[in-house]
Amino acid sequence: MSQETVYAIASGKGGVGKTTTTVNIGTALAQAGKRVAVVDVDLGMANLAGFVSLTPDSTTLHDVLAGDASIEDATYRLADNIVAVPSGTGLDEYAEASPEGLGDVVDELRTAYDYVFLDVGAGISHETVLPLGLADAVLVVSTPEPAAVQDSKKTIELTARANGSVAGLVVTRTHPGSDISYEEIAARLEIPLLGTIPEDSAARESVYAGTPLVVYNAEGSAAIAYRTLAADLAGIELAAPTPRSSGDTADEPEAETESAQPAADADSTDDADSSATESATADDDAADVDDASDDDDSSQEAAPDDVSSAITEAESDH
């Protein structure tokens, strides 16, 4: 098994498929029997919960970082072998959370799970730089568009300044037959190309359904690519998906739950027997996720002084 067990999934620009990548790699490994935790460390613009139809109670990562709850209180079972730690969405919760506590959260989850995936916010700020140094390795996610690639270079530079390590590049929304060389993109960034994820209309549908793509459309091209990427990261072979029967439809989840319940402890994930696959019906929620809209590609960058401050703080905290 890979020695790297904590991965930060990062990008310089929003809307490139970062959260989709986090959820689907984690789900693929959980399906293979690995114990997985996915954590929304985008403290300011949390959206991971919407991707998995998770409706947490009042306890989130913000409460943990504010010192008001334990990590177990903010941990929710999603399905067999996989849990999620969501962040809150309120501004008051954000103001009270202290990012410095992320190190303790990561250390605790590292000991309890085989793999931990940190869904990092886009842009440059203290809370987005910090996880880059806490993870064993960073997966940089980008589309082939020049602006996204350019912002990926900034993410790589920030990772180095936070004393982190970049595992490689994942290029999303690729197209077969394109004259773009994804290997050349990785070469320009001077990092390995870990995988490419083809454009797949089912990806957007899975967001609205609140179901990971590797479950929602397991035999689709993007789902297969995510499983391949997960297998490569873990150094294992993943079984092929079970073909759908003639009566199955893509929008019929196998099991539904009204809301997710906090996991009592890390070991309790072995007993989970249902997936949180309730359909997400609010258009606003789906529009907020970082890759549900092709039009929302703006990145958030701080002024130069703020960037220097964020880097300095991240280096001192590492």
From TrEMBL:
Biased composition (Acidic residues): 281-299
Gene3D superfamilies: P-loop containing nucleotide triphosphate hydrolases (3.40.50.300)
Region Disordered, annotated ranges: 240-318
Gene Ontology molecular function, alphabetical: ATP binding; ATP hydrolysis activity
Sequence intervals crossing the membrane: none
Domain CobQ/CobB/MinD/ParA nucleotide binding residue range list: 8-212
Gene Ontology process terms (BP): negative regulation of cell division
Source taxon at top rank: Archaea
Pfam family, one: CbiA
Cellular component terms (Gene Ontology): cytoplasmic side of plasma membrane; cytosol
PANTHER family: ATPASE INVOLVED IN CHROMOSOME PARTITIONING, PARA_MIND FAMILY, SEPTUM SITE-DETERMINING PROTEIN MIND HOMOLOG, CHLOROPLASTIC-RELATED
Name of the featured protein: Septum site-determining protein MinD
Organism, scientific name: Natronolimnobius baerhuensis
